[in-house]
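TASK: fixed-backbone design
INPUT:
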């Protein structure tokens, strides 16, 4: 049985949960009304990052019957339609994720933090900060560093953007705005509409790729240019915004090479996901993808008379399916792949590409080749939280597929979609990055890609990934495997890579997530395993970052529904001239010492956020005779160079200078003077007098795609529960189960997090790991309750989320614990 308790070393938050969540007495009502600032919402824009204040909004702070407070903010204008989730900040400090009202004019969140009763100001925040309130950083003269040389990229002479031999025909379909309903959207009606790009006169069944756009306004008035995202179907005078038509360039590229691309519309979800879902629409989006696949399967059936068959009949290979999802669509296609795996006869989803994705619940997706594309100048999902899809999945199970994460320099969130791009779109659109004069990401910056350049990069990498995985065109592997390939169509764009090769093609020496018997860390000023940020680690543990600007730290940004769950552990080292011979030493096991069968020694590296000046490392292999072959990281990779940061940061907003690990590959064939049949150690030592770095994933590997498909991993789910509060201390039992009550083939662990309550459901209260032993069918969680004898008719509801599993994948990851008052009037 898993006890609802903090991990060892964590501050004792259970008592706080018991007292504040289910208090034994009623608090005196508190109501505060005052003017506040908030982000205005011209719904004609998709993403607004800064300059969103309006001084005339009002806020309320009211006490809740059983403890805690609800903070509400009334806006003068509806909230901007963004893929990021809004937050509320009291006096400049984020207190929790906000729930939007149906009309978009009110935001609210609930908290047990008594400091909110003295609130003087309430603001809208995004990605952990309030744009117009963040204090200006203290700037000092920069310490110069020397770049180690140009970023040498490997030319790939087959360009995935080059048109293929097929003409492209359109076979679009539209079954109406209310063609179906989705249980993940409270069974509200949504459309079944898609653009279909097919290779004309191509013989036989063709691979299928499904595109899913992200969260944009659903409707607009062509005359007034006013947009609306509160009603579906659209109001009279308004028409749907065709976000699904925004990927035509990429779709046509793939179709010309023999793929059938189906780009689906999700406006019905976008209009209602803020108020009618528990998960911001992830499940609904996954269900919508499955609805379209089911529809395509029906039409593909060639039974019946020839004149009655659909034009797609017999043309679709649904054993070979790829999914691309943009922004909230990225989380949606991950959910679709997991839903697909639950089916008795799953489709052959073989490739998943989340583009600038959100990741609110931290599911994992093993067994399916995956490439995550992250735009460096993302002004909407600016914390690049989709990086967690890569980080969390790496060692979640033993699988055999390629996964990679790519940082596209100079790209913003919107311009991968023409319908979200000013000057190209039919409906209203905008550049999500601001300020416009930012020296790195501003629209006039020489390092910023134009919209056409950004779409060209998108086409090259999206088409290249699906053709690599689904079509077996291995010429495109260097774009994704960490060898830094490039093709002519990407022009001047810089794209950096993290990659993990298939399990059968790699030897994991040291993941560097926690202490291991074959790893010694010695001599550093700081040499410790870290995770998360300073405010979210257990007492005595080492945080990976101290910044509150989560947009600077994609690996460690907290997830919306799992805020306190530990994120992305790595080894953090810092050194100075006073350090005593610092090194990381990794020993190879006797059966692993012959490394000739591998192409390279690889590791992921990033410059420590506190480092100044030059930072470099020497990586060496040592054979049985003590002979050494050493490579300096800076000679082969820019991984320890800082990412570009802005010095002109109006209002003190700083989202750049990101810390992001990059894969460094050291070819085995270049390791001269050592016996590759008997390598005993790998060492990492400083090559500069001072510095700091993050290290992860020391591995010998050879690039490949591997074999993937619908995951066969056990699925773990959590069930709702309703209990009476009781008259004193007690517990509420909730149940975790494996799919079909299978017994686990290996130990399963999942991170559980509690948040409350009904109107917001996202205020972090507690997180803890739950372990299901090998051979078990489930586990119980006991939530402590503090009952009372006071009469109160209101029920309390708390969301329990499970995330970041190992040994399994998430089935149903959200449940409600309802606590009823059981005292008679």
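OUTPUT:
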């Amino acid at each position: 049985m898993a006890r609802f308790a903090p991990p060892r070393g964590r501050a004792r938050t259970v008592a706080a949960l018991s007292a504040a969540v289910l208090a034994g007495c009623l608090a005196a009502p508190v109501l505060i009304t005052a003017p506040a600032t908030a982000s205005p919402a011209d719904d004609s824009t998709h993403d607004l990052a800064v300059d969103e204040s309006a001084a005339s909004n009002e806020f309320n702070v009211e006490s809740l019957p059983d403890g805690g407070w609800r903070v509400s903010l009334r806006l003068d204008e509806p909230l901007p339609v963004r893929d990021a989730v809004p937050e509320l900040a009291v006096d400049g400090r984020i207190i929790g994720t906000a729930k939007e009202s149906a009309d978009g004019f009110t935001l609210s969140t609930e908290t047990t933090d008594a400091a909110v009763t003295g609130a003087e100001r309430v603001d809208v925040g995004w990605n952990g900060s309030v744009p117009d309130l963040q204090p200006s950083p203290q700037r000092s003269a920069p310490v110069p560093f020397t770049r180690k040389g140009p970023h040498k990229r490997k030319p790939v002479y087959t360009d995935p953007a080059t048109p293929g031999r097929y003409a492209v025909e359109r076979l679009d379909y539209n079954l109406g705005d209310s063609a179906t309903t989705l249980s993940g959207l409270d069974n509200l009606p949504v459309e079944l509409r898609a653009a279909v790009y097919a290779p004309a006169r191509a013989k036989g069944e063709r691979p299928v790729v499904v595109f899913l756009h992200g969260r944009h306004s659903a409707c607009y008035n062509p005359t007034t240019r006013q947009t609306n995202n509160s009603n579906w179907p659209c109001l009279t005078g308004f028409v749907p915004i065709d976000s699904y038509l925004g990927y035509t360039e990429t779709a046509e590229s793939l179709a010309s090479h023999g793929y059938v691309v189906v780009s689906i519309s999700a406006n019905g979800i976008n209009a209602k996901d803020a108020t009618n879902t528990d998960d911001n629409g992830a499940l609904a989006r996954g269900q919508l993808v499955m609805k379209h696949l089911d529809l395509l399967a029906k039409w593909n059936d060639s039974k019946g008379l020839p004149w009655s068959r659909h034009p797609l009949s017999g043309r679709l290979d649904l054993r070979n399916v790829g999914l691309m999802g943009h922004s909230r669509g990225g989380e949606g296609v991950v959910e679709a792949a997991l839903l697909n795996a639950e089916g008795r006869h799953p489709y052959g989803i073989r490739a998943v590409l989340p583009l600038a994705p959100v990741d609110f619940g931290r599911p994992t997706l093993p067994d399916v080749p995956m490439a995550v594309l992250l735009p460096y100048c993302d002004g909407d999902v600016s914390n690049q939280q989709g990086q967690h899809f890569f980080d969390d999945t790496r060692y979640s199970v033993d699988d055999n597929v390629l996964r990679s994460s790519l940082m596209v320099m100079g790209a913003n969130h919107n311009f991968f979609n023409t319908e979200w791009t000013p000057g190209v779109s039919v409906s209203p659109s905008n550049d999500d990055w601001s300020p416009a004069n930012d020296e790195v990401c501003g629209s006039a910056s020489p390092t910023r890609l134009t919209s056409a350049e950004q779409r060209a990069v998108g086409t090259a990498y999206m088409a290249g990934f699906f053709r690599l995985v689904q079509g077996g065109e291995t010429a495109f592997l260097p774009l994704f495997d960490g060898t830094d390939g490039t093709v002519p169509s990407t022009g001047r764009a810089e794209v950096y890579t993290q990659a993990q090769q298939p399990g059968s093609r790699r030897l994991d020496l040291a993941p560097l997530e926690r202490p291991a018997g074959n790893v010694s860390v010695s001599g550093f000023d700081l040499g410790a395993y870290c995770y998360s940020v300073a405010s979210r680690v257990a007492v005595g543990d080492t945080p990976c970052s101290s910044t509150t600007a989560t947009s600077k730290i994609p690996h460690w940004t907290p997830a919306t529904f799992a805020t306190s769950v530990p994120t992305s552990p790595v080894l953090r080292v810092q050194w100075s001239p006073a350090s005593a011979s610092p090194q990381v030493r990794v020993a190879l096991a006797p059966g692993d010492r012959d490394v000739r069968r591998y192409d390279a020694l690889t590791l992921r590296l990033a410059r420590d956020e506190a480092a100044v000046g030059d930072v470099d490392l020497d990586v060496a292999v040592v054979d049985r005779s003590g002979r050494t072959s050493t490579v300096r990281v800076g000679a082969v990779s820019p991984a320890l160079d800082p990412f570009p940061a802005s010095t002109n940061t109006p209002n003190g907003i700083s989202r750049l200078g990101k810390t992001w690990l990059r894969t460094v590959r050291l070819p085995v064939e270049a390791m001269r003077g050592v016996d590759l049949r008997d390598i005993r150690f790998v060492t990492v030592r400083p090559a500069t007098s001072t510095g700091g770095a993050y290290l992860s994933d020391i591995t010998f590997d050879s690039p490949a795609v591997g074999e993937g498909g619908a995951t066969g991993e056990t699925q773990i789910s959590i069930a709702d529960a309703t209990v009476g509060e009781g008259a004193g201390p007690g517990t509420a039992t909730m149940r975790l189960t494996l799919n079909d009550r299978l017994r686990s083939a290996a130990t399963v662990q999942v991170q559980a997090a509690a948040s409350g309550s009904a109107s917001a459901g996202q205020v972090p209260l507690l997180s803890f790991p739950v372990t299901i032993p090998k051979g078990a069918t489930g586990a119980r969680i006991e939530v402590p309750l503090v009952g009372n004898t006071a009469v109160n008719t209101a029920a309390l509801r708390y969301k329990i989320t499970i995330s970041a599993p190992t040994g399994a994948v998430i089935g149903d990851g959200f449940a409600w614990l309802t606590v009823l008052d059981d005292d008679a009037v």
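COMMENT: The chain has eight helices and 47 strands.
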